[in-house]
Design goal:
The chain is of the alpha+beta class. It contains twelve helices and 25 strands. It starts with a helix and ends with a strand.
Length: 476
């Protein structure tokens, strides 16, 4: 189970950078909740490194099967966010399945009765060590790793890991690093649009498994390993005091773009007044592909998300606003991971996305824009969810929205959400109504209170609408 979760995390971070932050965060929460931060170290102490290596090698066929199953769930952009929600389910609840795990692993090696690093450690709370007296930011270390991997071409993952580890160790056996943490052992660095590609993970940080520090932190630790998918791991970490950190010189390593990845941005950043976004003449069309999503109870569902293809050879995979109100120029700057370059391949497209990955987009349909003033009729709803009843659990999460359109140009509807289990039930609803106007790939919804929304809109047939990028089917 431990290896499977790590494999799923690594695969998703590599294959879908857009959801990497969500997957990594879910993984970190899982490690913390299951108290597995030092699991592999303690297992190695218990079994011996050679036994542990043979055990890992023996799982090769199982991981190949897991990879095949993951790919059947659809493209990573859909399957990986769904996988992240499962990390917190009973499916991966190690402690529930092996409640005596801590006792089975035995005492932590290399610790004295006070729980602090003994003479074999590289640093103590009172005696920090750092090669050359230099402190690196997380972004600087991430950039070093990115530049180390760049020339390797088609090197295997193991070769990339080895090259990164060699580079790190060339900095010295012990390094100091500064960044931010949210009461976890992962130290990161980010701004309003980017986060580092490689975080730093610290074993034994502050020698306090239950209460790691929060906020800006500087640590010193021994280089343990590098993983080309997830990041850098230090062991025997200690948190330096402000006075100790002040004794270190700041590294002059250059931070490069390759050391960062882009974060998802709120849609509100890209809303502009009608007519200031894309023109109808800019749009080639909207196309559907087959994918998967998570439904009520955690069931995997077949879905048909859409992407907006432009005549200039670019494609956007997350349409939400009416194109004429979509600030596509700013979107290309702040969320390039959602943009790609397309070329035709028969009825399909080959897309090279902003993260360098190439995808064959198999067209399953082309929802059409509607003539200005088209009237609609009928009730439609979209629903998504989560939980674990599909995996024999008792948690059900449901959410969605519905619209009822009338030929007189009025609409009503609202959003709803609920969660229930054997111990708790909660829900919420919100209703709205007003008038609607359809034009091209957009719909303008004007509420009775004066509020207005200009959303992406397209119709595939009488039974499938796209509103704000979500698919709506008849509410029968």
């Amino acid at each position: 189970m431990y290896v499977s979760v790590n494999y799923l995390r690594d695969s998703c971070v590599k294959r879908d950078p857009a959801s990497a932050a969500k997957v990594t965060q879910a993984y970190g929460a899982w490690v913390g909740a299951q108290q597995l931060g030092d699991f592999e170290t303690r297992l190695g102490q218990k079994l011996g490194k050679e036994t542990l290596l043979r055990w890992r090698q023996g799982l090769g066929n199982d991981l190949n099967g897991l990879d095949a199953a993951l790919q059947k769930l659809g493209p990573p952009s859909q399957s990986c966010p769904a996988i992240a929600t499962l990390f917190s389910s009973d499916t991966f609840n190690v402690r529930k399945k092996v409640p005596n795990l801590t006792a089975l692993l035995g005492p932590v090696g290399g610790k004295n009765s006070a729980g602090t690093t003994g003479t074999t450690g590289v640093a103590t709370q009172n005696q920090p060590a750092s090669a050359g007296g230099v402190v690196y930011s997380v972004a600087q270390l991430s950039s070093l790793m990115a530049q180390t991997l760049a020339p390797l071409g088609k090197a295997t993952g193991r070769e990339q890991d080895a090259a990164g580890l060699k580079k790190l160790k060339s900095l010295g056996p012990v390094i100091a690093v500064s960044g931010t943490t949210q009461r976890s052992r992962s130290i990161t660095q980010e701004d309003d649009r980017r986060t580092v590609r490689f975080d730093v993970y610290c074993y034994d940080m502050a020698n306090d498994a239950d209460n790691p520090p929060k906020g800006q932190v500087t640590v010193a630790g021994r280089v343990r390993e590098f993983d080309h998918v997830t990041g850098i791991t230090l062991e025997d970490c200690v948190v330096l005091s402000a006075a100790q950190g002040a004794q270190l010189k700041k590294s002059t390593v250059t931070v490069v773009d390759a050391g960062w990845q882009f974060k998802a941005q709120p849609a509100e950043k890209f809303l502009v007044a009608a007519g200031q976004g894309l023109k109808d003449s800019d749009i080639l069309g909207a196309y559907m592909e087959q994918s998967t999503g998570i439904g009520v109870g955690g069931m995997v569902l077949i879905t048909y998300p859409i992407s907006l293809f432009l005549k200039d050879g670019t494609v956007y995979n997350d349409p939400y606003w009416a194109p004429s109100s979509f600030n596509y120029k700013l979107s290309r700057q702040l969320e390039p991971q959602k943009w790609g370059q397309w070329t035709r391949q028969g009825q399909n497209f080959v897309i090279r996305w902003g993260n360098g990955e190439t995808q064959t987009f198999e067209v399953k349909g082309s929802p059409k824009p509607l003539a200005a003033g088209t009237k609609l009729s009928g009730a439609f709803q979209t629903i998504s969810g989560g939980g674990n009843t599909a995996l024999s659990g008792d948690v059900v999460v449901a959410g969605g929205s519905n619209y009822t359109f009338r030929p007189d140009g009025t609409f009503s509807g609202g959003r709803f959400g609920s969660v229930s289990s054997s111990t708790v039930t909660a829900g919420s609803t919100g209703k709205t109504g007003g008038t609607y106007v359809v034009s091209g790939y957009g719909v303008t919804l004007k509420g009775t209170g004066g509020q207005e929304q200009r959303l992406f809109f397209a119709r595939y047939d009488q039974d499938l609408l796209y509103i704000g990028g979500s698919s709506y089917t008849p509410d029968r």
